[in-house]
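Protein modeling request. Please complete all fields; requests missing the sequence field cannot be processed.
Requester role: graduate student
Desired output: 3D structure, token encoding
Chains: 1
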Amino acid sequence: MTTTGRTTTGTTTGTTMTTDPPEEGRRFRMPARVRIMAWVVLLMAAVLTLVNLVVWQTLETRVSERVDQALDQEMAEFEEFAAAGVDPRTGAGFTDLDNLFRVHLGRQYPDRNEIIFGHVDEVPDATVPTGRVRQGQEPLFDVSADPATLGAVLASPSGRGTVDTPEGELRWAKLRVGPPAGSDVPAGWFVVGYFVDADRADMHRFLRLLLLVSAAGLVLAGSAAWWVAGRILAPVRLVRQTAAQITEEDLTRRIDVTGNDDIAALAEQFNAMLDRLEEAFSTQRRFVDDASHELRTPITIVRGHLELMGDDPEERREVVRLVTDELDRMARIVEDLLLLAKAQRPDFLHCDEVSLAELTSDIDAKVRALGDRDWRLDEVGEGTVRLDPQRVTQAVVQLASNAVRHSGPGDTIVLGSALTERDGRRTALLWVRDFGPGIAPEDRERIFDRFARAGSARGDRPGAGLGLAIVRAIAEAHHGTVRLDSAVGRGSTFTLVLPVDERSTGPWDAS
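Delivered output (511 residues):
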């Protein structure tokens, strides 16, 4: 028992177990559907990341601007109040900073996130109150009552800054305030603070919501990309599955084409390729079948004569003559079969612009050597046509050869050509007419098949039955046909009908 891979043989049961080795060198291939979905998700993720960053930066800028605006507003209101220097309750001027701060702060209603306070420098033996003066509303964190935080704010050389507090970042602004004119009371500081994290909390809640929506959108986009890619790539997957199921024995499978996009065009081209492959394989099979069928008889004859050949010189010469004759017939059959096979190839025709009259005259001169017949030229078409002159000559000579085989010495055979025009399309006609026994109605279609032979009043004539098949192949290569008019006892007329309008005569034109 021969197996591939590792083989383990049991010693008691006598059975053989086979395990296949793992496939090596196989490259991992990511499905196109996965790649499309991955690229869509990646692109969406990049766009959503950019959107979130832009939104975050925009909101952060707005929070910062709002805080700066609030600080500037409080500072401007205090500067305006201090510049006036008059207590609105009494109309008298302020004599110390503690009273100035208290009156101003009593008129303010800061936001929940703001803190406003004043601080009078503490000096020994001061005759006026010193220390902090805070707003009436309770702030989130009383910076003025925390020595460490207050010291950091008042000791900073800058007029603005930030400091960390238990309630988060505090952005502050301070203003040095001197004593009223003409007094020797201590100076002080006016401080405005804003707890930024409180505003940022709203921004962060919005950003979390935006991230959640972005993630959901990313999942939906990935799902939609997976579904759409599956719909778009379904014909491609069908093409791959169909290609995997196609074998030389079964080329009949086709893909159902729906839509009019590029994928549908791919499916159409794939079906067209299968049509060509099926035709090519069919042609190959016909060639093999026809060759094996037709060559079997001459091979049997040659073998039989060689096996029975004796030592007599005369007998040997006769056997050699018979064998040579059969070999020549086999060669002609093979050549004709090869010609029919080549009729499906792109280089079968080599078309050119030729004069129909000259072509007809050349053919007439060639066919007269085929036999002792009364050759006549019926009509000659005038004009220039585009076709393959050698193939057309071969077809007409074949028709003339058939006419010779179905007629006797001195019988009349007529050749002719014409150029017709109908509905703006020109057609070249070349015909061969004989006055022999004619063709029975039941044989008129069959005689154009390979190896078909029609009966006649003169008996069956020798030949492989490939001549008319070759004529039809040449006509169809020009996108034309072969027309037969015949009556039993009155002869037959074979006519090549070839359209000659197109610059190219079809898919077989290789000029």
